[in-house]
Design a protein that fits this description.
The protein is about 40% helix and about 30% strand. The protein has about 200 residues and is of the alpha+beta class. It has a four-stranded antiparallel beta sheet. The protein has a three-stranded mixed beta sheet with strand order 6-5-9, covered by helices on one side. The longest helix has 28 residues.
Amino acid sequence: MKTVTWGWEPPQYEILRSGLIRIFYYSEMITKTVSRLDPETEEETSEEITSWKCNVIEVNDKSLFSMIKENPNSIECQKKLLTYRINAYDSSDHVNTFSISGLSTWLDKATRVGLKLRFEAEKRLGKTETTLWQDGIQFPLPLTGDITALDMLDGIELYASSCYDTTQYHLGQVKSLTNIDEIKAYDYTVGYPEKLVF
């Protein structure tokens, strides 16, 4: 997954020479004002520059490739592209992020399970504080008191479950869409819970 910036609205997809399909998702239009000083007249002028920022995934899907070659505007093809966008959005940092002391980060399922086992063991052995390491930064966390490291993990787990439910809802909605305009206009970014801040 990567982010690219375009000088124009990005397409839905591109077919690369390698046969991979580059699918664009979660596009944002960014407008900024740029000031310039004319060296001859010393007059300042400004102009607005608009660009598009979007996320990109590359997939190797022979059936999608065939659909695009045969009829890229078919309902089946557009639904498949939308499904890829939804899944990519779900696994991106637009969804999988929480903040701890100002750092945006994420803990995948396996890491959450491992940390929970560790924190529970440390608590049983009488420790009152533990440590979470993220991106080389140490975060001391309490194991006792009103809000503990285990409470934080529970919150992240509930957030992740809610995001999963929202993604599954969107994937279910795609199946019920019946025309190209509905598919192209479908907003798969709505309904996700607010990101957690610790």
